[in-house]
Design goal:
The complex is a heterodimer of chains A (about 290) and B (about 375). By secondary structure, chain A is mostly helical. Chain A is built from 13 helices and no strands. Chain B folds into two domains: about 230 residues, Rossmann fold (3-Layer(aba) Sandwich); about 120 residues, Nucleic acid-binding proteins (OB fold (Dihydrolipoamide Acetyltransferase, E2P)). The chains are: A mainly alpha (about 290), B alpha+beta (about 375). The complex binds adenosine-5'-diphosphate and magnesium ion. Adenosine-5'-diphosphate (ADP) binds next to strand 2 and helix 1 of chain B.
């Protein structure tokens, strides 16, 4: 009798498992479908797309749309492809991510290990920054960029993104360092280490997971940003997202859907790469921050 | 002049008064233990000595020099933390050498100092490991190594053994005592374990709620506790604190103690009683001062025997503890291992009144 019920339990286990896998596969397909459509259509000549069947594989494989999107497609009025804008985006994202991450780490360090009167108030204000919608800060930001003579420059965009990201990066690092043992800082003080030496030699080397989380978060947000990019850039500082929009919305000539698809994938590629390379640490870092140090 | 002097030390965290005027001192090479229940301010006091916390009032002097304003690294102290506080990203050798590295000591010299300390603490084989690869006892040794390598004037220990299991704790306690005897450096040691305090200290400071209860040698603290808190806190099993009454009968002073059944005990106090006023007192007597008559201390001048009802018997191997009821409270007494007593029986017990102390039930302070 017990053998029979065990057998039963095993069988329901298999059925449940099969059901779970079926649902998971269904969702995986559902979420991957848009990527698939973009990918296959970016590798077809335009006529094939016009014939209709969006889901079919290309009959004639071609990378011409990719080359066009990269270097010759019409963006606004200029036939120069996305490349210069890709470079703009890189020049903007890398310093902005670096600055906001380092400042967030410093803030977290000070807010947890060098507490001062009113520190929770300061932290509360920084948290508030996470919830302020982009639109509200547009006009004050424009004014400040004007005063600093940074309007329409990549540096201006770096400044805006670094400042806007500071709330989040501070939150991440503060919560992570909150669980970091204060006795370590005290031991280092007795060893004679200075404020910055403690930060660099003791805290930073133990911050791997939270640095990965912050970098991914900041990179994706800044790379994908459209509003600040379109509001504060001028001809030679337009980031990729804005250029992609200009590519897709070019009013002249036929709509080259294959080129648009290729361009869109190009624009998404860096964030994809960052996720694939360090996504594992992302989840682990979020957990570490949440559970313990 | 003492080596480490603390005078009128106060510490406030905002509105919270954590240390309320502590005055202490310890001679060079002495072993000062700060003991008290958790939350009484021991760590805070140690941190102010280290310079990790500022003081609200009072003065700290090391070797005659005021150090209130000095940075922790300039006070010539080293500290061992409760959690060991080993830098997780560095090897054992790097942990020990970190302070020297910060001070710019050249590498060959650092290596030599690390090797010496590793030798002394028998951790040579661990030097290349990370703290996460060490057991609790090994981490403890490394933490001590990091302190020893500085050769400071004063060592500060904050509950260094509380994270170890019982056996290791006893071993490390002996080791710390041995190190202290060989190095002859001044140590301030925090613990909530009164046995650690008794075994290690040359001077003990008992704290409660940020107030210094008593400061003295282990024998003074043990035999002449300043108040009922100290009496109860130091010693295991704790001192019996029995409500009783002093009565004058002619020239005799007698101590009357209620029992659960039968006549109250009436113990002649002899000359010790002359200084006591008649009235209610708390009679403090340690378990080992109440024995079976044959086990009584023959060198004592005043041993009084009285019949008591034994309620519980707890053999502990080397001794037998028995519980009786005196003055409405359970009293623990210590008999020889082979004393013939059984629960429910009335046995003669010998009270060594040389060891008795008396407290005022109102103020809880020791009388006489
Ligand atoms: N940084 C601080 N801010 C506020 N209160 C504190 C701080 N550090 C300690 N305290 C308080 O001071 C008291 C003594 O703490 P501590 O010295 O750590 O006690 P112990 O080491 O004797 O257990 C506790 O009540 C604790 O809550
Ligand atoms: Mg403590």
């Amino acid at each position: 009798m017990s053998a029979a019920s065990q057998d039963n339990a095993a069988r329901t286990g298999v059925i449940a498992r099969a059901a779970i896998y079926a649902v998971l596969i269904l969702f995986a397909v559902y979420y991957l479908l848009p990527l698939y459509v973009m990918l296959v259509n970016s590798l077809k000549p335009l006529e094939e797309i016009r014939q209709g069947n969006m889901l079919a594989l290309p009959q004639q494989w071609t990378i011409a749309p990719w080359l066009s999107a990269w270097s010759t497609a019409q963006i606004g009025v200029q036939p120069i492809g996305l490349r210069p804008y890709f470079i703009n985006s890189v020049l903007m994202v890398v310093p902005a991510v670096f600055i906001s991450t380092m400042l967030g780490a410093m803030n977290g360090y000070v807010l947890t290990k060098w507490r001062f009167r009113g520190d929770s108030f300061v932290f509360g204000m920084m948290l508030l920054a996470c919830f302020i919608p982009f639109q509200i800060v547009l006009i004050p930001s424009a004014r400040i960029l004007g005063l600093l003579d940074l309007s329409g420059t990549v540096s201006g965009l770096i400044l805006i993104h670094a400042v806007y990201g500071l709330g989040f990066t501070t939150l991440f690092f503060r919560n992570y360092y909150e669980a970091f043992p204060t006795e370590l800082v005290r031991a280092a003080q007795i060893d004679g280490a200075s404020f910055f030496q403690i930060f660099r030699r003791i805290l930073l080397p133990s911050s791997g997971p939270i640095i990965v989380v912050t970098v991914i978060w900041q990179f994706t947000n800044i790379w994908n940003d459209f509003l600040f990019g379109s509001s504060f850039s001028s001809v030679d500082s337009i980031p990729l997202t804005v250029a992609l929009n200009n590519l897709v919305n070019s009013s002249t000539g036929v709509k080259e859907y294959n080129v648009h698809f290729a361009g869109a994938i190009l624009a998404a590629l860096p964030t994809l790469v960052v996720y694939i390379v360090s996504g594992r640490y992302f989840v682990r870092g979020l957990m570490a921050g949440a559970v313990k140090g | 002049m003492a080596f480490l002097e603390i005078e009128g030390l106060q510490k406030k965290f905002g509105a919270a008064d954590v240390l309320k005027g502590i005055t202490l001192e310890i001679d060079e090479g002495g072993f000062l233990v700060l003991v008290g229940p958790s939350g009484c301010g021991k760590s805070t006091l140690l941190n102010t000595i280290a310079g990790l916390e500022s003081v609200s009032a009072g003065e700290i002097r090391i070797n005659g020099k005021r150090v209130n304003e000095l940075h922790p690294s300039q006070r010539d102290i080293a500290m061992v933390f409760q959690s060991y506080a080993l830098y997780p990203n560095m090897t054992v050798a790097q942990n020990i050498a970190f302070g020297m590295e910060i001070r710019g000591v050249p590498k060959p010299e650092r290596d030599k100092a690390v090797a010496e300390v590793a030798e002394m603490l028998q951790i040579k084989h661990l030097l290349a490991r990370k703290p996460s690869q060490l057991s609790g006892g090994q981490r403890q040794r490394v933490a001590m190594g990091r302190a020893l390598v500085r050769r400071p004037q004063v060592f500060l220990f904050d509950e260094p053994l509380s994270n170890l299991d019982a056996k290791l704790r006893v071993d490390m306690r002996t080791e710390i005592k041995r190190l202290h005897q060989s190095m002859k450096r001044t140590i301030v040691y925090v613990t909530h374990d009164q046995i650690e305090a008794m075994t290690l200290a040359s001077k003990i400071a008992v704290l409660k709620d940020g107030v210094l209860q008593q400061f003295g040698s282990p024998a003074e603290i043990y035999n002449r506790p300043a108040n009922m808190f100290v009496a109860d806190f130091m010693g295991s099993p704790a001192m019996n604190l029995i409500p009783a009454e002093i009565a004058r009968e002619g020239n005799d002073t007698r101590l009357k103690v209620e029992q659960r059944s039968g006549e109250p005990l009436s113990l002649a106090l002899g000359e010790a009683g002359a200084a006591l006023k008649p009235g209610k007192v708390v009679f403090g007597i340690r378990p080992e001062a109440v024995t079976d008559p044959d086990g009584a201390d023959r060198t004592s001048r005043n041993v009084v025997e009285a019949p008591c009802l034994i309620e519980v018997v707890e053999p502990a191997g080397s001794d037998t503890f028995a519980v009786t009821n005196l003055g409405g409270k359970e009293a623990v007494v210590r008999l020889r291992a082979d004393a013939k007593v059984s629960p429910g029986q009335t046995a003669m017990l010998a009270f060594n009144l040389d060891k008795a102390v008396f407290f005022d039930p109102e103020t809880q302070l020791r009388l006489t």
